[in-house]
Amino acid sequence: MNAQIDHALEEIRRFRPSPEFAAQAVADEGLYDAARTDRLEFWADQARTLLQWEKPFTRTLDWSNPPFAKWFDDGELNVAVNCLDRHVDAGLGDRVALHWEGEPGDSRDITYAELTDEVKRAANTLIDLGVREGDRVAIYLPMIPEAVVSMLAVARLGAIHSVVFGGFSADSLASRIDDAEASVVITADGGYRKGRVFPLKPVVDEALEKSAGSVRNVLVVRRGENEVDWNADRDVWWHESVATASNEHEARAFEAEHPLFILYTSGTTGKPKGILHTSGGYLTQAAFTHRNVFDLHPERDVYWCTADVGWITGHSYVVYGPLANGATQVLYEGTPDTPHPGRWWEIVEKYGVTILYTAPTAIRSFMKLGRQIPHEFNLRTLRLLGSVGEPINPEAWIWYRHVIGGGSIPVVDTWWQTETGAIMISALPGVTDLKPGSAQVPVPGISIDILDDDGTAVEGEGGGLLVATEPWPSMLRGIWGDPERFKETYWEKFGDKYFAGDGARRDEDGDIWLLGRVDDVMNVSGHRLSTAEIESSLVAHPWTAEAAVVGASDETTGQAVVAFVILKASQVSHVNDPMEASEELRRHVATQIGAIARPRQVFIVNELPKTRSGKIMRRLLRDLAEGREVGDTTTLADTSIMEVISAQLR
Ligand code: WT7
Q1: CATH for 19-505, options being 3.40.50.850, 3.40.50.12780, 3.40.50.300, 3.40.630.40
Q2: Centroid of chain to Cα 216
Q3: Can you give the pTM of this predicted structure?
Q4: Is 268 annotated as a binding residue?
Q5: Where is the AMP-binding enzyme C-terminal domain (predicted)?
Q6: What ipTM does the predicted assembly reach?
Q7: pLDDT tens digits, 17-63
Q8: Does the C-beta of 123 come closer than 6 Å to ligand 1?
Q9: Burial class (CB in 10 A: 0-12, 13-18, 19+), 268
Q10: Is 628 marked within a binding site?
Q11: Cβ atoms within 10 Å, residue 540
């Protein structure tokens, strides 16, 4: 009887594609067969079919100098033309590219013809500001159409964009501007968030005071109508320059390996890494996965990815993938709960969204609020749901499918990283049987394996470290200005295999389950944060003597930042109340790095657990932060220390 129940449960937890969905699906088994037969020819074929090349390539992959890959390197294309002009030339100029929705409820529909026009004008403005091929342009904008326009205008010129998420602080912005030596910053006066205008231009002003001075001009979109200081030698209004610029711009083609963008992400050290992506391979895999993983039918779908363009998801699945595929999509400026908790579902209803791509942390917060909120809206247009950023627990998967998706539509869990550029592991809707909680299988043309710590492949069922065993088209081409760090971080551990930094398990069906990071990188609400970066921010505060940060599991955000801080003896007498100190330090991290890095808790302690060689044992602090029995303490220099610390937390 029990075995029968188990069996039934197993069956429930596996979902076959419905025959109706399968019949109309973009993807089919043939993709796997083609990729297995000749992986390189498979990608060459995708690159030729999905993109328009000014000069066709004859070489697919050059891996003669690993880990520096070149894809399609004798071909030439213009990425912006692929996302814009070619659709207009194909007669699709009147198709809506963006249904933009501002947080306060203002909205704009922008067609492919209009978007192309605007990008050409922005490109001409950037030329006037001296931007040339290979120059770096920092973009610090809210989720408004000008963010998409700016990225494409930079790409059109063969310049390199570095988008910095609008929630990052002046310090974080300054260090990114300096690392890339950006010559222009594109920003807005402010944007809307949680019903208020948050200022951006003032943050840019502050960042430029701190920065080394590479920036010549700041191009400013008027959005928040908040007051801003103006430096007439440096600052230029978008509505005075772009609006009046010529809408004629002849785009030239660039080599497939021409740099497209830099995007900073947290690593295991305090300094963020500038992940570098190039043109032809990146666009091929972004377009391929966007089409096949999301079953995109561009003539009828309304697609919505809720990510901000400040993250890789916004680059690949708001800008490059969807626009290369000629999709119609929603772009939303604000937060999910403003002005009311049903805001997202209202947007789905308003635009008839058919494909929704979001993060588990959002799904879990909606779960907490209850199903009556989404049920007030008509969500029946939805036909596919996607998830990204962290493992989606089976309960959240089921809730997403039932409450948002009405019970029978596919949910795809997509695993990838800033570094991989595009989706690497995911089911293909209409093809793969779905299994809640597992990201499942590599997409066609991608080679993934699970290795032991010593590099031996884990055969069959079992756990280990996730690697990519073959180069892939959208892989990072390096870390900006630091080839050594690129090799060390990803390639030193296993030689010719890419080490992703994630733990993973393969189940009896061969499906892959992601188990979280194995390094000192935390995942908070699907965003990457480095323990080292937050620790150095804490230590930079005049009160702090020492700090240790851990990622503790959190019901809503996946992980949360928890810090343990020892105050300087000289300061202890000035600090009246440990609560006050902990509040001050939380605020400090938020101003230094950005609100996403603000610790959930800062515990003021007198000691930290250390090994005899002086290494902080974060594992034990994580036990404390998660309210667990403290694990093995035998390697501590002072084995009684954990009792002392936990007594202090009580
Ligand atoms: C890290 C990459 C890729 C866009 C968003 C995050 C975790 C990402 C999943 C998933 C389990 C996931 C990994 C990865 N991650 N997607 N579907 N299941 N974990 O990009 O900021 O570069 O972070 O996010 O730990 O290494 P990112």
Answers
A1: 3.40.50.12780
A2: 29
A3: 0.93
A4: no
A5: 533-615
A6: 0.99
A7: 999 999 999 999 999 999 999 999 999 999 999 999 999 999 999 99
A8: no
A9: middle
A10: no
A11: 13
